[in-house]
């Protein structure tokens, strides 16, 4: 007689939920927030804004002859740290996608969700929304720490002025879009080092180098590059860009931002095509 009791057949069913886009976004958010490097990068990038704001506004307060100048646009000085914030957030944009290729985790991701473009879109949404929120918090902090010096400098920020509102809200838009560009480049090169070097090289070296060449056709080309065009959103008519050396006013702020968005869409299309054609 057997001492082992027969095992009753299992009648329960395992329910497998499809990898909907909402679940993909939730999964990507878990990945992003579970990395300490994400929070450090966001914190460093976000704190550049108040640090530069208080530094620049306080320094103006020490120069009596500069007080009251028409070029002292409060919104521009409060957001003057956006150039360095861009470096931090663009680095994050590259790492979000290239990091999974480096560890090989991307294979598990595609195994769970064979729809590669959906995965790419979910990563993009989570990354850009996170950067936009962090940027908005940074702008608010920058305004708060700089405001005590406004009376001494003659600066002001008035949200009823279209220019001030555009510049302040333009920071999250610009930084999220720049991060999306970095994300797309990271998806193309699949290497953290190469991706970061490419993004920073394009946004800082190439664009500023071309903008410094005093030849009409080159100046026109430089004005249509991503950071130069997109930075029009953050410019006052009285002050140049804090992103690049280009100070063109050939097109309106929203036209410039539209050109930047077009660049991002184009690079994302290339990234999507390569994602579908190449092995993980």
Q: Would you mind describing this structure in some detail?
A:
The chain is an all-alpha fold. The chain has one domain (21-277). It is 70% helix and 0% strand. The chain is built from twelve helices and no strands. It has helices at 21-33, 36-61, 74-78, 82-103, 105-112, 116-146, 150-153, 162-189, 192-211, 216-223, 226-230, 253-277. Helix 4 (82-103) runs antiparallel to helix 6. It is globular and about 75 Å long. The model is unreliable at 1-5 (pLDDT under 50).
Biggest sheet record: none
Q: Estimate the global geometry from the Cα principal axes.
A: globular
* Gyration radius, in Å: 23 Å
Task: State the secondary-structure class.
Answer: mainly alpha
Count of individual beta strands: 0
Kindly state the percentage of residues in helix: 55-70%
What is the topological layout?
Elements lengths: L20 H13 L2 H26 L12 H5 L3 H22 L1 H8 L3 H31 L3 H4 L8 H28 L2 H20 L4 H8 L2 H5 L22 H25 L3
Helix pairs in contact: 1-6, 2-4, 2-6, 4-6, 4-8, 4-9, 6-8, 8-9, 8-12, 9-10
